[in-house]
Amino acid sequence: MSKGDSFTKSIGKKIKLARINSNLTQEQLAEKIGISARYVSQLERGLAFGSAHTIINICQTLNIDSNFLFSDLIDLDNPTSINSLVDANFLKSYIKLNESNKQFVQIIVTQLLKLQDDIKTKNA
Predict the structure, then answer these.
(1) Cβ distance 68 to 27 under 8 Å?
(2) Which three-class secondary structure state does DSSP give residue 77?
(3) 77, 88 in Cβ contact below 8 A?
(4) Cβ neighbours of residue 91 under 8 Å, at least 6 residues apart?
(5) Cα dihedral sign for 89, 100, 98, 4?
(6) Residue 117 C-alpha from the chain's centroid
(7) What secondary structure does DSSP assign to 20-64, as a single string?
């Protein structure tokens, strides 16, 4: 099994878990997001990978965060990955936050950037 296959299978298992936790059948989920039940089955088995639009609809319908689906794709220990651009320990902690706390972190970062720009402007 290739690395890509294992990712799609992992994402598929997570979709299935979230669907079951939402007490929906494949048919009900398919109807809510406008795809076929067969396609939902293929997604859950890792035989297909949905478009960005489909994945967003699944996340919204099942009330899950995309981090739940894609956490296996983020290799925090790989220094050549895009994540090396951001402190790995920060990312590990951030991923564990619930959505409310992630929004709070975004507010703090936005305010810090504004403060930094204000100080820079004042000192210029």
Answers:
(1) no
(2) coil
(3) yes
(4) 74, 76, 83
(5) negative
(6) 30
(7) HHTT--HHHHHHHHTS-HHHHHHHHTTS----HHHHHHHHHHHT-
Return the structure tokens found at 28. Answer: 């009900």
Window from 2-16, 22-36, 66-80 with minimum mean pLDDT: 66-80
- pLDDT interval class at 46 (50, 70, 90): very high
Q: In one letter, which amino acid is 57? A: N
More reliable by pLDDT, 72 or 16: 16
Beta carbons of 91 and 76 less than 8 angstroms apart: yes
CB atoms inside a 10 Å sphere around CB 15: 25
**d(Cα 97, Cα 100) in Å, to the nearest integer?**
8
Q: What is the pTM of this model?
A: 0.59
* Both tokens assigned to 30: 């398919």
